[in-house]
Amino acid sequence: MVVEHGLRHRKTLPQVSAKPRSAAGTAMLAAAVVMSLAANTLASGANPLDQIPQLRREHGATQLIADGVPFLIRGGELENSTASSSAYLDTVWPKLAATHLNTVIAPVYWQLIEPKEGVFDFASVDHLIAGARRHHMRLVLLWFGSWKNSMSCYVPSWVKRDPQRFPRAARSDGAGMEILSAFSTDNLRADTDAFVALMKHLRAADSKQHTVLMIQVENEVGMIPEARDHSAAADAAFKAPVPAALTDYLAKHKDTLAPALKTAWRTHGFKAGADWDNTFGASPATDELFTAWTEGRFTGAVAAAGKAVYPLPMYVNAALIRPGKLPGQYPSGGPLPHLFDIWRAAAPAIDFFAPDLYFPNFVEWANKYAVAGKPFFIPETGRVNGDEMGANAFYAYAQLNAMGFSPYAPEFLAPHDAEAIGKAYDAISQLTPLILANQGTGKMIGVRAPAQFDGTADLSPQQFDFGDYVLTVHFKEPAPISIGAKGETGIPGAHGGLIIQSGPDDFWIAGTGMIVTFAVRGGAKETAGIDSIWDGRFVRGSWVPGRNLNGDDDNQGRYLRVPAGQFAIRHVRLYRYR
After folding, report:
1. Alpha-carbon distances of 176 from 167, 220, 229, 264, 372, rounded to whole Å
2. In terms of C-beta distances under 8 Å and separation of at least 24 residues, what long-range contacts does 272-279 make, across chains too?
3. Residue 478: its pLDDT value, please?
4. Which CA distances in Å does 424 have to 52, 96, 356, 392, 544?
5. Cα separation of 63 and 377, whole Å?
6. CA–CA separation, 113 vs 1, rounded Å?
7. 445-577 adopts what CATH topology?
8. How far is residue 412's CA from residue 47's CA, in Å, rounded to a whole number?
9. What is residue 5's predicted lDDT score, i.e. its pLDDT?
10. Model pLDDT for residues 355-384, shown as the tens digit of each residue
């Protein structure tokens, strides 16, 4: 589908100079663009679209609402190039369905949808939506606009070939980079026009069926191999006073600022009206604050303009930091935990920040993004085997109230990994009503053996209180009872899962590689006994029991075992005796 309405649309926008502007000028343009779009939307008499996907606070957790009810994303993010070919994409859908995905996270490529300036071709988007509907899946769309992994590789040829009109960021030695500068109003205008055209198309094509759930705006923004842009426009902005919009925000939230940011600002007297070096100190860290603000403002303006047309939830993702790396040695300035405050001030239209989590210390990083009161979603994860990813998914949904979880490139997973994730997602699919009903209530916990960055796992037992009971999760085999028995040995494979208390003595326990023992809380003289353990499945929301796991299967009433190498669901009933 080719639409030649882009240039006509642009005539309704404020007219500005083609010269690069300051950060303040860019912000003024962004505000004018959003006001213009909002006015046009209101003038059209459009309905409020109350039933489109949205974020809602439910019993202590922020959940994604689709068609009026909570929705849990069992996702997979396509490899960068998969969705660029309709024929190739058609070969991928069966693989995704076999892995029990209900949502595909997929790019929309600026260079494909606007091959000529103002001429939009949404054939690739329409084919993606049609394929998702045909396979009963939803979509989260990634806007590969100005930046993808910091670089501007997905901008159209007419942008790439005109650096005078669409200027690039520069290194400190003056060399240009394949990164569009955030200081150009033409760069912002072009990206915004394309994103608005996409959102208009989605509104026309999907506002009734709601196949598209959310939008990621840009991809892993940030500067590398230096922490900030050193172009003439950037240098001028860096030497100008830090915008009052930022210092006002920091002053209002002074008590909760990230420690390093607060320390840097306090050390320089909590100044307002000074340049960046004199406000935060001359350092690569200050360069990164500057990048977070400028690229955050740019990204937030694009998001706000799109929301004025079709207000789907929108987020920004971040490439994380390896230990010991300094600003400039990783994509610097993205929505990383130490920069959350800057991004919240810069981009209020962005609903939340999401980690691309490829490190073994999953638990540590996931907890940094699972901020109280904010939505939590993992759009990309991998570089561990499928069993480990499945265990991570259980933990994220149950412990961190995740809206969704998404391994990267599921179409290219090794057979064992695809099978393992499929088993994990199958169990999570069965448990979804229980998970959604219990997120934020305190009646559900996620279990995971945490690991360090080098992959070393902590297999220490973990204790959890539930009403009158204490449940202890072990990741090692208990030593035999016989005299002279050897110590515990680690259960092989991945370790993780969830526990949900559904009644005073009733529990659902699911996952992989765990042994659970039970006790009565408070040092009471009573003992917790196992009344029954059943395996089974949920079929269309109803529990269908399988085997009664007694005798050797619960070590004569001593514990519950969730086997390694599979993802099992157990229904447990306890009792107390003296």
Report:
1. 9, 20, 10, 30, 41
2. 272/242, 272/244, 272/247, 272/248, 273/241, 273/242, 273/244, 273/247, 274/241, 274/242, 275/238, 275/239, 275/240, 275/241, 275/242, 276/238, 276/239, 276/242, 277/238, 279/242, 279/247
3. 80
4. 29, 14, 20, 10, 18
5. 10
6. 10
7. Chondroitinase Ac; Chain A, domain 3 (2.60.220)
8. 42
9. 37
10. 999 999 999 999 999 988 899 999 999 999
Q: Which pair of tokens denotes residue 515?
A: 């042994």
Alpha helices in 222-339 (DSSP H): 232-239, 244-252, 259-267, 276-280, 284-309
Pairing relationship of beta strands 352-357 and 377-381 according to DSSP bridges: parallel
Question: 451: which 2 tokens?
Answer: 């690991």
SS3 (DSSP) at 174: coil
Residue type (1 letter), 484:
G
Instruction: Give the three-state DSSP class for 91.
Output: helix
The pLDDT value recorded for residue 477 is: 87
- Could you say which DSSP state residue 442 is in? S
Exposure pattern of 72-104 as b/e (b: 16+ CB <10 Å)? bbbbbbbebebbbeeeebeebbeebeebbbbbb
Nearest Cα to Cα of residue 142 among 408, 323, 375, 348: 408
CATH architecture label of 2-425: Alpha-Beta Barrel (3.20)
3-state secondary structure of 443: coil
In this predicted model, what pLDDT tens digit does every residue of 448-457 receive, in sequence order?
999 999 999 9
Asked whether 303 and 217 are in contact (CB, 8 A), the reply is: yes
DSSP for 101-148, written as a single string: -SEEEEEEEHHHH-SBTTBEE-HHHHHHHHHHHHTT-EEEEEEEEEEE
The domains of the chain are located at: 2-425, 445-577
Residues of the chain with pLDDT under 50: 1-46, 48
pLDDT computed for residue 44 by the predictor: 42
